[in-house]
Design brief:
By secondary structure, the chain is of the alpha+beta class. α1 packs across α2 and α4 crosses α5. The chain starts with a strand and ends in a 13-residue tail after the last helix.
Length: about 150
Amino acid sequence: MSEISWHAAELTDADDLADLFQVIELAASIGLETVPGEIRARLSLPRLDLRADTMVGVGAAHGLVAYAEAMDMGVGAGQFRIRLTCALHPDAGSEVLNTVLDWLIGRAAQMRSERHPDLPGVAGARCAASDHARRAALIAAGFEIDHWHHEMT
């Protein structure tokens, strides 16, 4: 994949994100929204600071190829919970995956230290069962499989 430029997500990215999320959902579904209106609603959530909590990657040849989001999910069971979204075009490659995971883990650590340094933090990320490269990268980064979700159609 060509050189990637990175910037924070904006509401105007919703259509391009819908296109990216549709490609991802066809290749290895992780339950992403695929309708621009739903994506605009997601990007407008009060706990999401687009400038600090999101990142999109744009490639010259492929357009938008990556979306990363660290979402404050509040405190529950004595833990500060953070949902990490790592949405990558199937052709993005391991370098883009590693860049996104490094950013997400760094942002999650920063959120915890800013918002709830006195509580243990837990970060969760979704990964399709068929996405072996992402699962291996998540495990290498210290994540553990907590549960599997199966849908029968």
